[in-house]
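User: Could you check the structure of this?
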Amino acid sequence: MKTLSSVIVILIALLAAAPLALPDETGMFQTVKAKSFDKEKFVFPDDIRGGRLNVLFLAMSADQDNGEYQQGALLEWYDALDQRGVFSPEVVGYHFPVISGVPFFIKGVISGAISESYEGRIAPDHGAVLFIKDLEGFAAAARLPLDNRPTIVIASAEVRPLRTFKGEVSPEGVAEIADAIEELLTE
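Assistant: Sure, the predicted structure tokens are below.
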């Protein structure tokens, strides 16, 4: 019995660390009014202007510590995918920390602090903090699991989710996402 429980614990740990590609059955994103990191009006997802594909890096969390962890992990994903050469005029990356339950009077402070962490790493018009009322509803509308892990969504030019990946950055995960992008570009 002890061996079985040890095997189960190891399997759970491996699954938590591995990137997870989720089924292609996806929904639609809710519309959210925001300000991009360059302080311009931005309507998510309408103002996403990638070429054929958009790669959305979504940090969705109900608590600050996990949100900061996801944000850092998603920047690592972005850097690894950029080094792999996946971004081009046809494939554009966007970053969106998604936060719920924030009083209106501190949204500017939060946006400013978050945008500073992206400074020099992404184009300032390719990211915004999405302040929403219902985090579970936002995730459910796009059929995204809300599980405290970094979320990467490959979306069409019309910003319809096509593929979803979750988890920590790894060489295997980078290859999996790069392969998915290549496959989607050939369709």
